[in-house]
From TrEMBL:
Matches recorded under Gene3D superfamilies: Heme oxygenase-like
Pathway(s) annotated for this protein in UniProt: Cofactor biosynthesis; thiamine diphosphate biosynthesis
Reactions catalysed: thiamine + H2O = 5-(2-hydroxyethyl)-4-methylthiazole + 4-amino-5-hydroxymethyl-2-methylpyrimidine + H(+); 4-amino-5-aminomethyl-2-methylpyrimidine + H2O = 4-amino-5-hydroxymethyl-2-methylpyrimidine + NH4(+)
InterPro entries listed in its UniProt record: Haem_Oase-like_multi-hlx (IPR016084), Thiaminase-2/PQQC (IPR004305), Thiaminase_II (IPR027574), Thiamine_Salvage_TenA (IPR050967)
Protein name: Aminopyrimidine aminohydrolase
Residue ranges occupied by any Thiaminase-2/PQQC domain in the UniProt entry: 11-217
Source organism, top-level taxon: Bacteria
């Protein structure tokens, strides 16, 4: 069956990846509280690096938009990603007894670097629809994962606090807006560009799985 909307077409292309994320031991460990603290710390440290560059990718996306509401929306989300990095992350790092010096000393890991590089490359050199498709899994997968986790929260108060951020109604409204932009763009895309968008979406959805997996393993650079 042909998907009814562009966002549905994108989601269909990445659904097996999303299903794999839900059963990944990082996610099940957050939910039942068995995730080792060291893996969560790796995640928060890497996410601090990620959010700095994700924010810049959103600013590049904003610069490519033509509709001024969309310019304002992506620019606002770019500023918000920095605010999260400064607020929630600083607080969680404090609870983990880590500082911004530790974040800088750890540097960006192999998966973080690959994911950030891909985001930056597409948002800087691709079309506006390609940029939107590339940044979308970050929003959408976190909202869906947030909802699944929110249903049972976590016996660990630190993990419960993190879960509450992404399972919120505020995140729902943000993602709904981005999805309606995606569907608007999709209505007049040619087949070749549509296919490029599907590939970008699938690639960054894969990076989302790899990001959880790297944190679970505390993956170092191999050399
Ligand atoms: C690896 C990784 N992927 C997605 C998010 C979630 N996220 C980051 S910024 C944003 C909205 C725009 O400000 C959302 C939903 C994350 N934190 N880390």
């Amino acid at each position: 069956m042909t998907p009814s909307t562009f966002s549905q077409q994108l989601w269909d292309a990445a659904e097996p990846i999303y299903d794999a994320i839900l059963v990944h031991p990082f996610i099940t460990g957050l939910a039942d509280g068995t995730l080792p603290r060291e893996s969560f710390a790796y995640f928060i440290v890497q996410d601090s690096h990620y959010l700095r560059d994700y924010s810049r990718a959103l600013a590049l996306t904003a610069a490519r938009a033509h509709d001024e509401d969309e310019v304002a929306m992506f620019a606002d989300h770019a500023a918000n990603a920095i605010a999260v990095e400064r607020g929630l992350h600083a607080e969680l790092l404090g609870d983990l007894e880590l500082t911004s010096t530790d974040v800088d000393a750890a540097g960006s890991g192999p998966v973080t670097t690959a994911y950030m590089s891909y985001l930056t490359a597409v948002c800087a050199t691709g079309s506006y629809p390609e940029a939107v498709a590339t940044v979308l899994p970050c929003y959408w997968i976190y909202r869906q994962v947030g909802h699944v986790l929110e249903a049972g929260s976590s016996p660990d108060p630190l993990y419960a606090r993190w879960i509450a951020t992404y399972g919120s109604a505020e995140v729902d409204a943000i993602v709904d807006r981005v999805l309606s932009v995606t569907d608007r763009i999709g209505s007049d895309l040619g087949a070749a560009e549509r296919e490029r968008c599907v590939r970008h979406f699938r690639t960054t959805a894969r990076y989302e799985w790899m990001f959880w997996d790297a944190a679970y393993q505390r993956l170092p650079w191999p050399i």
